[in-house]
Amino acid sequence: MVPDDLVDRLVAHRTLSAAPRAQLAWLAAQGTLRRFEAGEVLYRASAPVLSLFVILKGRLDIRVQRGGNWRRVMEWRSGDVSGLLPFSRLRTAPGETRFQEPTEALELPGDRFPELIRDCPELTAILVHVMLDRARHFRATDLQDDKLASLGRLAAGLAHELNNPASAVARNAESLIERLPGTEMAFRALGSSALGESELIVFAELRDFCLARSATFRSALEQADQIEAMGDWLERHGCQRLEAESLAETELSIAMLDAAAAKLRPESLVAVIRAISAGCGTRRLASDIERAATRVHELVAAVKGFTYMDQATAPKPVDLARGLGDTMAVLRSKAKARSVQLVAEVEAGLPAVVGFGGELNQVWANLIDNALDAAPTGGIVRVAAAQEQGSIVVRVVDDGPGIPEELRQRIFEPFFTTKPVGEGTGLGLVIANNLVRQHQGEIEVDSRPGRTEFRVTLPLGAAAVESARSAAKGG
């Protein structure tokens, strides 16, 4: 005999109240009323989930370990339904489920679900909607966590990558300020030397040659030899030896200086050499500042492109070539730190796919980041994209040890990771797989020792457009 007060409590239950009373009476008759104390654990992580729980009073939550820390991802209170649900693919607990208050709940074993589905259709429909809402919540939470983890890696790499050009700008700007008074004095002396027309031509030729040509790369030893040779030449011609370092950074040769000296008066030669040294040195510092500032601009643009900042959250044509380039740009510092060569092989004129650029970039970031972790020191990670049979295929290939067969079947499972505790969330490939599927695509993996390939296939055409629109609406 089912107590009427239990059925009444189910009728007043926030989630189940729309079900017919007769079906709620069936639930009360088939279930077991249970009481739990605060702190009691219902399920450990990875333990089998065997029953449905209708929460009548109290509170419990589920916490998962991410990045070495426990984080609460969901909470159930009076009026909620937890545990196993009809048609759910959940079979094991993703984290630890613990009661936070004294709790009263009606438990229905999962082996009664066939009767529930057959005899209680309205109640079953309610529980299926609960399952869908829970799945959406977990997906959104996982996606947000993975985005935060990606941004953390991005911030660390970007700080390292920005440090070099930012330091170069500061260092060269300081040197430029110090050099400007000497440059001004050098050109005043040049103006006072009253160069003749032929001497002005010699000066112009030397100056234009220095400004138009980039200096050939030399080793430290070769550069020291060049400075020494320039210094000796300057001393022989009555010029200051300290000009040698600036002249050695140009393409000027001893032969060219000899030719100029033959056409200039000795006093004019001193003024010309001093002005050439000062002018070319100043221009070189300005060029170094420009290159470093351009690198900062490129990195900021890559981050903006990677995250799709300031863009509406609606499906639109996505330039995959640019997205892959931006992703590789923000991960290049990690490749350098690991001494791994990061190579792009993107087909020219690659057509756009319709979807969400930021989410696709998150896919590329997860795959490339994993490949960099897998590649050995001195290894190579190749990122290729090409059009194949009405689809775009993106391949991320590393030359690491490969994924053992027994682990390959589990790599898309939530929270599964082969990385040490605190270094992996076990969500990267799960998120990548979900995002690719939202774009009606497919992700596959082939692996053997020395070569692992993750292959993403994204469709082109009307089907992809419709899928992206549906995803935007939350369908």
What does the model show?
The chain is α+β, with helices and mostly antiparallel strands and 475 residues long. It has three domains: 4-119, Jelly Rolls, CATH 2.60.120.10; 158-296, no CATH class; 313-472, Histidine kinase-like ATPase, C-terminal domain (Heat Shock Protein 90, 2-Layer Sandwich). Helices cover 52% and strands 19% of the residues. It is built from 14 helices and 15 strands. It has helices at residues 4-11, 21-30, 113-119, 121-192, 197-212, 220-236, 244-248, 254-263, 266-307, 320-337, 357-374, 405-408, 428-438, 462-472; strands spanning 32-36, 41-43, 51-57, 59-66, 69-77, 81-83, 96-99, 103-109, 316-318, 341-346, 353-355, 380-388, 391-398, 442-448, 451-459. Helix 1 packs across helix 2 and helix 4 packs across helix 10 (320-337).
